[in-house]
Amino acid sequence: MPSLSLRINLDPDGRIGPGKIELLEKIAAYGSISEGARQMEMSYKHAWDLVEEMNKLFGKPLVAAQTGGKRGGGAQLTQVGLAVVTRFRAIERAATSAAAQHMEALQSEIEAG
Amino acid sequence: MPSLSLRINLDPDGRIGPGKIELLEKIAAYGSISEGARQMEMSYKHAWDLVEEMNKLFGKPLVAAQTGGKRGGGAQLTQVGLAVVTRFRAIERAATSAAAQHMEALQSEIEAG
DNA sequence: GATCGCTATGTGTAAACGAATATGACGCTC
DNA sequence: GAGCGTCATATTCGTTTACACATAGCGATC
Questions:
Q1: Which one of B1, B4, B6 would you mutate to disrupt binding with A, by most A Cβ within 10 Å of its Cβ?
Q2: pTM metric for this prediction
């Protein structure tokens, strides 16, 4: 059964989609960029690059990281970061729900055609 | 102002998004893969690869091409092809409309946060 | 002050992608 | 039947992207 996947286009050429959102969620859940990267099965560098890209994209940081300190450091989502994740999921739900009947119809048309 | 862009995930790993849909529309409008490619400012090969990919993806051809003949040949959308384009645009409209208020809210949250 | 885990950043190589080019088949048109 | 425009397909080549590796810095904790 086909599913919907959406991304938001910002600025000239900046997009944010399911991948970056999931990374943000992992970072929030584990309090660390590197642990989030492991959960996503990507290199720390890749995750860090994505975070950096998002921070620049929105003008304000979505992730705030501390270096050193207890357990070596860590990272949390900023208010903006949390808002982005929450809104994205909400948009996803609304869009999927609104498209549901069209998706079924499409499925039928493919099988019939 | 951020905009929404969506794609449909089919089968294990097959997606169809705005680019392929627009190509289908161009092919339908001009009755030719190569003219569609020119309109999209992409190489004929690229367009052909995309068509081939879609035809395999859906199991049935979305584009039917004739070689030789009047004006050297041509291509039209099949019923399935037309259905896919129509439904995709409908899904796009429904999703964009459903997400509109969330998009505005997100915009505000970014500026405020 | 030694340790530890994490952030932060650079570098080089491999793989994926896209553009361009070349060639052949086909069947109207003239 | 020569020419033309299109579909169909393979090959080459340069660029961009992705990825692995390598390393430096940080600072609370013990």
A1: B6
A2: 0.91
